[in-house]
Amino acid sequence: MKAIRRFTVRPVLPEALHPLSDLARNLRWSWHAETRDLFQSVDPERWTASGCDPVRLLGSVSPGRLAELAEDRRFLRRLTAAADDLHDYVSGNRWYQEQSAELPAAIAYFSPEFGITAALPQYSGGLGILAGDHLKAASDLGVPLIGVGLLYRHGYFRQTLSRDGWQQEHYPVLDPNELPVSLLREPDGTPSQVSLALPGDRSLRAHIWLAQVGRVPLLMLDSDVEENDLGERGVTDRLYGGGSEHRLLQEMLLGIGGVRAVRTYCRLTGHARPEVFHTNEGHAGFLGLERIHELSYEELDFDAALEAVRAGTVFTTHTPVPAGIDRFDRELVARHFGPDAELPRIEVERILQLGMETYPGGEPNLFNMAVMGLRLGQRANGVSLLHGHVSRDMFSGLWPGFDSDEVPITSVTNGVHAPTWVAPEVFRLGARQIGAQRTEDAMTNGGPERWDAVAEIPDQDIWELRRSLREQLVTEVRERLQASWRQRGAGTAELGWIDGVLDPDVLTIGFARRVPSYKRLTLMLRDRDRLMDLMLHPERPLQIVVAGKAHPADDGGKRLIQELVRFADDPRVRHRIVFLPDYGMAMAQKLYPGCDIWLNNPLRPLEACGTSGMKAALNGCLNLSVLDGWWDEWFQPDFGWAIPTADGTATDDDRRDELEAAALYDLLEQRIAPRFYERGPGGLPDRWIDMVRQTLTLLGPKVLAGRMVREYVERLYTPAALAHRSMDASSARELAVWKSRVRTAWPHVTVDHVETSAATATAELGSTLSLRVRVGLGDLVPDDVEVQAVSGRVDAEDRIADGTPVPLKPVGGPDLEGRWVYEGPLSLDRTGPFGYTVRILPAHRLLASSAELGLVAVPSEELGEAAGVLMR
C-alpha cells in the first residue's frame, strides 16, 4: 500500500546528546574528520546505511542506543570536545579578522547550484562544486559570506544504465525536512517568505531554507509552498530543467528573490548587510535589477541607481563558448517585467537594454544573461588565466575600439577545498610529518613553506600510501560495478568476473566529469586495438576508471557514454576498464585519491578551468591533460604531462581527434607506463615518487580554494566594497550625469594632428622623443578625458603588441578653433620594429577602468599613416 501522506519523525535526543543536533545541522561535519568519526561511532552500520549523513543517521538510531550513549562518559567527552571545537570555529578570529585593510562588512554570493555534500544534492557538476568549495573556504578564512541559491525538490538526476548501456535518469523527491536545512522563520514562528509578481496578477512565493556551512549561511529558495498554484510550485523542481520560461522564472527567483531573502535574513539575524554582491555565472544576474529597484525608493533615477549597484557588484563568467550562456527571447523577458509584473518602477526598455546583444555578431532579439551580468558588474573575471583571455575575446564586442587584452575582465583561477577532497590517509601522513594543526593550516590557508615539509616524507611511506589508496578504490569500484550490473538486470550467477576487476598493483587512470561533446569522453577509444594493447601489456598494463553524466536532453552525450560502456563490457578488457554510473561527490571522494593518473582531454580552449585534476593532485595523483584551463597555467614536466594539441585552423575536428589520441597513446606507452613500473635500487619507483612529491609541494598551495578566496577578497571584493562606499547617492548621480554628457559629446572627440621630434624612421634604444598632439574635445574639457600615447613592438601589419600607455598633458587652453594641444615624452625602451599611436579615453575618479564606457577616439587611418612607424 502507498501512503497518502508522508511525515518526517525526528528522534528525541536525551539532554546529554543535544549537541549532536547542532553538529548535524552545521555542514562543517562534511569536511571535519573528527566530527564524522564521532557520528560514525554512534552506530557504524547505520552510518554507512545513511550515506554518511548525520541527519539521516540520527533519524534512524534506536532510542535504546541513544540512551546508552547518554551514559557513555567517553562518548560524552568526545561530544563535548567536538561541540567546543565547532563553537571556537564559528566564533573565533580567523584570517579575515586579522587583516588590517578596510574589508567588506559582508558579501552575498549567488549561484544556481551548490555542491556542499552528497547529503544535500543541489549540484550537477563543476559550477556547483566550485560554489560549495567557495563557501567552505570562506568559512575557514572567516570571510563574512552569505550564500544564495535555490532548493530543488528533485535535485539533479540520479543516473543508471540500461542493459545496452544507455543512460537513464531518475529524479528522487527530496524532503527538506530530511535534509540538513531549517526553515527561516519570522519572530512569530511563521515561515519567512519572498514573493515575486507574475503577469496576470499572479504571484510566485518561496520559502527560505537555511543550511549552515561552517560560519557561512546558505539561503535556498523553495517555491513548493501551498500558496502557489501548481505551475509556480514547480519552479524549483529540477536543476537546469524545463523550457525557457521555466528557466527564466528560476533565474528571476534566484536573483530578485535572492536579494529579498538576503534582506530578510539580515533583518531577522542582525547579520551585516552585504556591501558586495557576487554573481557566480549569469544565472543570478537579475539581482542587480532588484537592487536598482530598491534604490528607486530612495529617489535615485535609473542611471544613478545603476552606477550605485555596479560599484559593488562582481560578476564571474565560467563559460568559454557563447552556447553555454542562458539567452531568452526579448518578448518573454519583457512580459515578466514592468507595471503588470515584477520591478514595476523600472521601464521595461531599460531592463532589456542591459541584456540585449547590441554589438557586431550579436542577435538583437535575444536577452543574454552574461551580457547583463557584465553591464551590471563593475568588476568581472574568468576562472583561469587562459579563460580570462578567452573571455576578453568573447565579450570584446561590449568594448568596441579596445584591444581584447584591455577588455576589463580579469581572472582568478579556481581552487578546491582541500579538507573536503583530501583522503583521510593523506591528511594523516601530513599530520605525522608536521602535526595535525599545521597540516590543517596548510590545507586551508596555503603557504608554500607548509607544503615544503612533503620533501621530508620517506619514499616508502609515499608509495605505501599510494598503494593503499589504489586498493581502496579497487574495492569501491567492485562494489559499485556489482550494484550497477544488478540494476542493468544481471543475475548473481553472471557476475563472478567482477571479483577480478582492477588490480591494486596496476597503473590506474581516472576520467570523471560531465559528458558534453567538447570533453571528449571517447577520445581514448579512437584506436581501440592500441588501447587494448596498452591495457593488456604483459609487463606494463594500465587500467581505467570512468564516470560521468550527460545532460538529460543531450542524446549526443548519452551516445558517447553508451559507446564507452559497450567497450567496457567486452570480456577481453572488462577487468581493465570500468564505467561507474551516478557520478557525484560521494564517488568522487573515493575516486580522486585512488588514481595514479588523472586524464583530461577537452578541446582546447573550451575548458574554462576544470578542477577535478586539482582534487586528484592534492592526493598525489599526477595529471595528464591537454594544456587547457588551469593546467595551461601551472603545468610543469616535474609533476605531470601535457597532451600536445592540434588546434590549428587548418585541422578539421576528425583529424584533430586522430592526432591528439595518437599523442595520448604515445605518452602512455613511451613515458608514463615505463616510469610507473621502473624500479630503483631499493625496489621502489623512485622517479614516480619524486613526481608525486613535486605535485604536492609545487601544486598543493596553488590549487587551494583558500588561495582563490583570498584573491577574490584582495583583488575584487575589497575594491568593490570601497567603490560601493564611495558611490553614495550624490556620487552616483554625479557619475550618471557625467557618463550621459560624455556619451552625447563623444562623436565630436577627435585626434586631429600628431607630430614627433623623430627626423628619421630609425632611432636608438633609450632615446626619448617628444610628441605633440592636437585634439578636438567637442563639449568636453581636459578634466573629462585622458589623452594617451600607446607604444610598443609592432607586427607586420603595424599592430602594437603589449602596448604601454603614457598620459600626455594639455598645454595651455583651447585655440581659436576650440582644439587642445597635448604634449609628452615617448621613450624608446625596446629594440626592433616599434610603433606608437595616440588615443583619447574618458576619465573620471569613479571609473574602475578607462575602458568602462567602451569609448575611445583614435587617429583616422590617413592621419595614422602620416604619423608612421618609428623604428624598423
Outline the structure in words.
With 872 residues, the chain is of the alpha/beta class. The chain has four domains: 77 residues, no CATH class; 269 residues, Rossmann fold (3-Layer(aba) Sandwich), CATH 3.40.50; 250 residues, Rossmann fold (3-Layer(aba) Sandwich); 123 residues, Coagulation Factor XIII, Chain A, domain 1. The strands form six sheets. Strands 1, 2, 5, 6, 7, 8, 9, 10, 13 and 14 form a ten-stranded mixed sheet that branches. Helix 7 crosses helix 28. The relative contact order is 0.08. This is glycogen phosphorylase. Keywords: Allosteric enzyme, Carbohydrate metabolism, Glycosyltransferase, Pyridoxal phosphate, Transferase. GO terms for molecular function: glycogen phosphorylase activity; pyridoxal phosphate binding. InterPro entries: Agluc_phsphrylas, Glyco_trans_35, Glycogen/Maltodextrin_Phosph, Glycogen_phosphorylase_DUF3417, Pyridoxal_P_attach_site.
Largest sheet: 10 strands, mixed
Question: Which word captures the global form?
Answer: globular
Low-confidence stretches: 866-872
- The CATH C-level class name of the largest domain: Alpha Beta
User: Which band does the percent of strand residues land in?
Assistant: 15-25%
CATH topology of the largest domain: Rossmann fold
Radius of gyration: 30 Å
Number of domains: 4
The total count of helices amounts to: 30
Total beta strands:
27
Helix content: 25-40%
Which structural class is indicated by helix and strand composition?
A: alpha/beta
CATH architecture of the largest domain: 3-Layer(aba) Sandwich
First-to-last CA distance: 88 Å
For this structure, what is the CATH homologous superfamily of the largest domain? Glycogen Phosphorylase B
Give the rounded overall mean pLDDT: 93
Family: Belongs to the glycogen phosphorylase family.
Keywords: Allosteric enzyme, Carbohydrate metabolism, Glycosyltransferase, Pyridoxal phosphate, Transferase
GO molecular function, one term: glycogen phosphorylase activity
GO biological process, one term: carbohydrate metabolic process
